[in-house]
Design goal:
CATH class: Mainly Beta
Mean pLDDT: 79
CATH superfamily: C2 domain
Number of strands: 7
Order of helices and strands: EEEEEHEE
């Protein structure tokens, strides 16, 4: 029996009707958990077919997962928009804290 688990965070995003179209910009999702930062690949910002469909995963043991659930360690998700060519102009579009207590495990 394996003692290592993968904690997956799936990021799905479909734009709303009035979502602005900025063809020179890209979106990146940053995930922060347990002092680690994971980033997704840049996705072009705007257009009728823009979608973010990606996963972030952290590897940990069962004991570590129980520790983080007990101490209510959150997964922080941050969506950043930046200029694709210069990487200089960046601003936050969305921020979310996800709680691990809602996580159901069959261990």
């Amino acid at each position: 029996m394996l003692d290592t688990l993968l904690l997956y965070c799936t990021c799905l995003y479909f734009p709303a009707r009035k979502f602005p179209n900025r063809p020179d910009y890209s979106l990146v999702v940053n995930g922060f958990f347990n002092k680690e930062c994971l980033d997704t690949d840049p996705v072009p910002h705007g257009g009728p077919t823009m979608q973010i469909n990606t996963e972030l995963a952290w590897e940990m043991s069962k004991k570590d997962l129980q520790y983080h659930k007990l101490h209510r360690t959150p997964i922080k998700l941050l969506v950043i928009c930046f200029a694709f060519l210069t990487y200089r102009y960046a601003w936050s579009i969305y921020y979310s804290d996800e709680d691990l207590n809602a996580l159901v495990t069959n261990l």
